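New to this. Help decode both lines:
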Amino acid sequence: MAVFSQHSYSWFTLSLLLLFIPKGWSKFRHFTLEFSRFKNKFSNRLTKLHVVLFCITGATAASFTFVNKCDYTVWPGILGNPKLDSTGFELPKGSSRSFQAPTGWSGRFWGRTGCNFDSSGHGSCSTADCGSGEIECNGAGATPPATLAEFTLGSGSQDFYDVSLVDGYNLPIIVEGNGGSGACSTTGCVTDLNRSCPNELRAQGGAACRSACEAFGNPEYCCSGAYNTPATCKPSMYSNIFKNACPKSYSYAYDDATSTFTCTGADYTITFCPNSPSLKSASNSNSSSKGGETTDGPGSDAEPVQAASFASSWLANLAIGDSTRSRPCFPPQHALVLVITLFLCFLPL
């Protein structure tokens, strides 16, 4: 049996390497090229899939629909981040308009009244004017007094919303959540506070009702200075007037417990001057003011009437199977997404 010397074995190994390396390198290079093509095609498929998912499911978290049931035109104002399609617009009596908002959107809405704008959109409003001199508020907030509807949309989590009278009141507003899961309570202020507003808080000839903070500027009313914590800032006789009339609305800065509401995956309707028993009661009641104390006429006790209004709304929703409006766990659009995903994954590359 032949025995190779170490020198012969080295030459033999080198010859084998010289023989097979070119073929191996060629195959390796071919493999890397094919893998690169596969990666590019797969990446393109993923891009297309993302586009499909974006188109089907959309990038919006919620829609906001504004409805005007007042007997006059309202000019809603919008302040939020990121900016929506409009920051202020005209909403004639009996009309509505909707906007889409992305996940994580946070901001507030209000209704301006008594506005006078020329053909170029320049002008101002008697109440809740945003000071921009235009129909569009362009990043400016409402000048108090103003009834505010405030929202923070979750990113795959709960939305938070409330109606606030902390900056005063100028018109009735309610907020309703549609198609969401969770409590999703209706909230707002449907009582006409302008009719029962104490004389010292009246503004714009009775067209709005100021907060005590705006009217007097005292730290205990503004929850500022030494009163800037929940422990030191308490309800005042003036905030109690607002709270008794509108139990579900913020009446002062730390009125969180009964005034903040949550919902998941809902669209929202903001209604100005909603038709309700409490609003009719307030408009038909005879109120008299003496020395800043308000005495309502018979049948104008706002709190029980408003509670009855919300209860009747809830019962009506229950009767039509809409009291806890949960979204289907597997709606048709999700099924469509699944089919397209499977098609793209198994389509030959």
